[in-house]
Task: structure prediction
Amino acid sequence: MSAVWLVTGAAGMLGQDVLARLAGEDVTAVAADRAAVDIADPGAVRAAFEEHRPAVVVNCAAWTAVDDAESQEDAALRVNGTGPAVLAEACREQGAVLLQVSTDYVFAGDGVEPYAEDGPTGPRGAYGRTKLAGEQAVLSTLPETGYVVRTAWLYGAGGGNFVRTMIKLEGVKDTLDVVDDQRGQPTWTADLADRLVRLGQAALAGTAPAGVYHGTNGGETTWFGFTREIFRLLGADPERVRPTTSEAFVRPAPRPAFSVLGHDRWAVAGIEPVREWREALAEAFPALVAAERR
Result:
């Protein structure tokens, strides 16, 4: 009998790509969206575990409305903190591996060198605090089978995101002013999904130590640089994209000025880091354009 992989948050952009990646493996993939399993409800999680007996749980469920978290931190904490804690306890009882997707927002965002996996955290907003609570619950409950994979700047064909928004705006705006003082790593959900699956496989094989990994594409850029590359791939004039500062787009939640993550820990699992962001964007682009223009 093939191993069962339970994917929570399965209807989301990343969850869809994890399921697509698992379709190529000899496993039984169970898709659990919010309606099927409320991850913060111990009874619902227990029932799902009793029914499916997962060997691996990939938790893609999350409260990702960064600004709303500032005024609704308790609600965000229920999904981002309590949910992973409930899943971790169920995994402990079941003897299952848990892959918890987290975020660059657990860091202060004022660095100048890529953040190491074991670097000090210091979230500046509610979203980062709630995601850090989830990380801590997983790592403390599952010291041998708990994996935290931090990511950032996600885009994919399966949901709304920055790339799809810029594709749309290119067709209706003569020029775009885009922030050039926030630096990070655009990351394709399909590439992250591949690393999650490979990490889960290595965990089952006993070749990947538990703990924190960073799942972002390589290299770095700003939102401005990212947008110019999107315009270039569209065949549009990149000069139509103009640089501006964060002060021009004041939001309820503070945005990290520096979100570049280091990838050193993949080596201990025998898995290469994710490829450079421009290469990934070029491969992802046709599906992104098709999804936005449907």
